[in-house]
């Protein structure tokens, strides 16, 4: 299954790390687009094509949580899975994210295997 | 000196380096940072990532890298060699600082100290200094990475 994945993180280094992890995983054939903040993320998000969003929380202009709220307001033709990839690892922050449309959560630092396993929960078949 | 903060920093740095940097940081002896001296030897601080923390307490975390340690960390994280401090190296320093602050913040949340963190600010140069919030409540935790230096500075007001 070839996924369309949108990576939203204000760190270009982190986007490179995530893209390399995906390229080295079973999702190596994914089409990956990227954005440097939530506002750019909204511009890159394609409600007809995007299968998965990997989004940071703390970003300039439009932070990850506000970005996700706006994505969930957009009528998409298919279920978009959103996984937050962030340093915000407290139980309270995770709960806040889940309450606002996040499907799953991975805290930085993370391994490539941990990222792949999170995605597997939705797209492994 | 607050041993709990030092323990959090040791734990978080070890976790970050083992999962995403793939280098072994060697712990040094922590010292209290004073108002008049940053306790970092000359030539051992070329680029620093600064994170502000606010909430139950006011705090900051500054991660000081010697040039060589910043280059080694970035090269190892991205799997490609870096010889000069460029945009990727500055970005990596910011992200490492961000992850250290985030990890310490999670540990503090378990003790009832809830904090929000700022976006990272990265400064670099041959001669700069950083002033902490309160020299009486500031600890400098040193590490070496294959012989080059990295310092994590945690300052706070209760």
Describe it for me?
The complex is a heterodimer of chains A (about 120) and B (about 160). By secondary structure, chain A is α/β, with parallel strands linked by helices. Chain A has one domain: Rossmann fold, CATH 3.40.50.2300. Chain A is built from 5 helices and 5 strands. In chain A, helix 2 runs parallel beside helix 3. The longest helix of chain A is centred in the N-terminal third of the chain and has 12 residues. By secondary structure, chain B is an alpha+beta fold. Helices cover about 35% and strands about 30% of the residues of chain B. Chain B contains 3 helices and 8 strands; from the N terminus they run αββββααββββ. In chain B, helix 1 crosses helix 3 and helix 2 crosses helix 3. The radius of gyration of chain B is 14 Å and the shape is globular. The mean pLDDT of chain B is about 90.
Task: Write the SSE topology.
The complex is a heterodimer of chains A (125) and B (158).
Chain A lengths: L3 E5 L3 H12 L7 E5 L2 H7 L7 E4 L8 H10 L7 E6 L4 H9 L4 E4 L4 H12 L2
Parallel strand pairs in A: 1-2, 1-3, 3-4, 4-5
Helix pairs in contact in A: 2-3
Chain B lengths: L2 H19 L3 E3 L3 E2 L14 E9 L2 E8 L1 H12 L8 H23 L5 E3 L3 E4 L13 E8 L2 E10 L1
Antiparallel strand pairs in B: 1-7, 2-7, 3-4, 3-5, 3-6, 4-8, 7-8
Helix pairs in contact in B: 1-3, 2-3
């Amino acid at each position: 299954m070839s996924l369309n994945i949108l990576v939203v993180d204000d760190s270009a280094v982190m986007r490179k790390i995530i893209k390399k992890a995906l390229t080295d995983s079973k999702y190596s054939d994914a089409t990956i687009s990227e954005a440097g903040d939530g506002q750019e993320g909204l511009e890159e998000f394609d409600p007809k094509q995007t299968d998965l969003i990997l989004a940071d929380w703390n970003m300039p202009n439009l932070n990850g949580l506000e970005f996700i709220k706006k994505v969930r307001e957009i009528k998409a033709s298919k279920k978009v899975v959103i996984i937050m990839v962030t340093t915000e690892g407290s139980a309270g922050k995770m709960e806040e994210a889940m309450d606002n449309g996040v499907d799953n959560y991975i805290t930085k630092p993370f391994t490539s295997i941990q990222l792949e396993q999170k995605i597997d929960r939705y797209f492994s078949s | 000196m607050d041993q709990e903060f030092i323990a959090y920093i040791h734990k978080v740095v070890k976790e970050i380096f083992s999962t995403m940097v793939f280098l072994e940081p060697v712990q040094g002896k922590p010292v209290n940072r004073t108002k008049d001296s940053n306790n970092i030897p000359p030539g051992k601080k070329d680029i620093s990532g600064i994170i502000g923390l606010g909430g139950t307490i006011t705090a900051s975390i500054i991660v000081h890298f010697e040039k060589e340690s910043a280059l080694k960390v970035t090269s190892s994280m991205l799997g490609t060699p870096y010889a000069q401090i460029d945009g990727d190296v500055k970005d990596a320093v910011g992200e490492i600082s961000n992850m250290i602050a985030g990890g310490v913040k999670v540990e503090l949340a378990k003790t009832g100290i809830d904090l929000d963190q700022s976006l990272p600010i990265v400064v670099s140069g041959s001669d700069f200094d950083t002033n902490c919030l309160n020299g009486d409540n500031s600890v400098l935790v040193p590490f070496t990475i294959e012989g080059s230096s990295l310092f994590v500075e945690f300052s706070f007001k209760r």
